[in-house]
Amino acid sequence: MNTLSIKQSISQALAAIALVVLPANMAFAAEDAGGGIMSLVPLVLIMVIFWVLLIRPQQKRMKEHAEALNALKKGDKIITGGGILGRIMQIKDSVVTVEIADGVSVRVKQDTITGLQESPKPQEKKDKKDK
Predict the structure, then answer these.
(1) Are 115 and 77 in contact (CB under 8 A)?
(2) Looking at residue 110, which CATH number applies to its domain?
(3) pTM for this structure?
(4) N or C: which end of the chain has fewer CB within 10 A?
């Protein structure tokens, strides 16, 4: 057998397979024609759940953080993203000068501030009464 006859027999075999498979695929497509929209319902449902559980809460946190940054003023005690604690000395544009120790101040970008320092709560003294 030469290569030409091998190529012809392969192409004939592929044509025969296509003739057998094509009607089966067309019949399957005809049965499934009404289910095209229904197959998208799970995908849309997953997207809605993803938005409700992940995207919406993240947008809410970002909005609260932006409001907190806009409310910063001189003298506030803050925490930066790197964990540096300090007191705001000056706010100019988006750069904040923070005093981290007596006479030591650093400039940080305003958006790296994670929040205000919480003042330590006094611990309640336990009553020790002997009965």
Answers:
(1) no
(2) 2.30.30
(3) 0.56
(4) C
